[in-house]
Fold:
Amino acid sequence: MEQFSHLQRSSIIQKLESTNYDLIIIGGGITGAGIALDAASRGMKTALVEKNDFASGTSSKSTKLIHGGLRYLKQFQFRMVADVGRERKIVHKLAPHLVLPEKMLLPVLSNSTMGMFSISIGLKIYDFLAGVKGDDRRRMLGKTKTLKAEPLIPEKNLKGSGLYAEYRTDDARLTIELIKSAFQYGADCLNYMEVKDLSYDNKEINGIVCHDHHDDKTVSIKGKYIINAAGPWVDDLRKINNSKKGKHLFLSKGIHLVVDWKKLPVQHSIYFEIEDGRMLFIIPRDQSTYFGTTDTPYSDDKDIINIDFKDVKYLVSAINSMFPAVELKIEDIKSSWAGLRPLIYEEGKSASEISRKDEIFTSSTGLISIAGGKLTGYRKMAVKIVNLVNNKINKKYNKKYGNSETLKIPLCGNSFTNYNDVTVYIDKISNSLKKLEISTDYASYLVHNYGIQTDSIIKNISGSGRSNGELDLLRSELDHCINFEMVYKPLDFLERRTGRLYFWSDSIGNCVSEILTVFKNNFNWTDKKYKIEEKILIDKMSQIRNFTDSK
Ligand code: FAD
Structure:
């Protein structure tokens, strides 16, 4: 495997400065990552820059579902449901270890706005639009079967449920595997490189001017076409380009809360209606259960998104009113995250009514911005925008690249033919861990995160001078992420490459100094830098459990 690492940062920057790219992408979220893979795999000379870490924006803060969006059926958005719904299976095939089939249970209560009949028809249409076949098609369960499937649902008022197919993933891992795949096709992708300005030749954009956060210097990169895939920051770049006119973004904030699985021991992912008519998800993951989300207009600092106490109370009380026996308390929350949906403003519509469809705006100077959309639809968004660039290159430079190949490109970490192979591989990893005297609980965590790359992580443990099993595993993972996943800061690793911060925070507590020391040694940190990074990490570990009072 070729190194994708900050240890090569200076040579990557040299290349960025000396190449005239076909396409430069601003933003390393799922949208930019998908575009980078599509363009690079067609043979375009492609660069991607990200101001922070890859996936540090909305693409690590979602509900982490690859789903068709059942609720959009209610808004008659059939086209979007069909498009996104069909993508689910494709994305699952591209990374079956990372995009996991997940049956969703939709309980029907006597006070639900939709009864068993309407839910049955709704789910049937949902399956039809998304082309769901065979055993994956929805099943309606009566009261007894529902209680058997999910004993936590109270019997009172229960009529039955619909059980239907979705997929769950880790959004940040999906993004990094796309970026690594793009890198394997020759894309030059770099994080901690912030676009501050655009350069022009005769009123046409011909490049970007960046601030390199690592070396604190200016880096200029030239390209024929520039795509602004900056998510919630799309309008900031349009402003720099003097093209923020007409349509603009509308940001909607959503939060999620995580508790120990034992506190909310659901057997199933559940999608349920709450008293105000909104729908919430509950999703079990490893030893945790997470739930959300909210949908509120947002106009504060996009780089620091606090979690309001009132949103937390709202979600906790929704859980308690659906599952009174659980008696969830705010103190039970072990972590949380908040993200911003970069939606396109529609006059007179509330946050939850605004369409999630994507749109492309091209400015008179040539900045191509893309906004809206869903994690699930990243691939189709990429096909659309790279087709547009391909046509432009053809017209202006008389050169034509091929059609999109991404339907057939397995993402990094995938060498499985189907999901069954993934489960067999988890068993194999479980045996290896047993031999190394490491908890087998890590087997599915490792395989769902890294896929086949788990082999080299395990091999690295076997080779090292052993001390403590779990610490050795952590070190080996970190080594992999520094060398092959462009990890530069502790939170890149703990928050976005592994999700340990949110879902397995107990596994970090005693290892903070070990983790920081690995960074210190790899990146020649001074003692002062060590202290700064230590404070950032410790602050974050407390911030994910602390909430702010609303203004
Ligand atoms: P981002 O992920 O925000 O990426 C943009 C990137 O651009 C950022 O990393 C940012 O740092 C970078 N950037 C900004 N300015 C600059 C600059 N000047 N220079 C360089 N880089 C820059 N979708 C689903 O399909 N399923 C779900 O379950 C789901 N749940 C959601 C739940 C919530 C609460 C939210 C908020 C969204 C959810 N979505 C879901 C939607 C999905 O998460 C988003 O559509 C998607 O992540 C947006 O990705 P993006 O790449 O466009 O934006």
Remarks:
- The domain at 419-543 is CATH 1.10.8.870 (Helicase, Ruva Protein; domain 3).
- The pocket of flavin-adenine dinucleotide is lined by residues 26-32, 49-52, 56-59, 61-65, 67, 194-195, 229-233, 237, 254, 293, 339-342, 373-376 (CB under 6 Å).
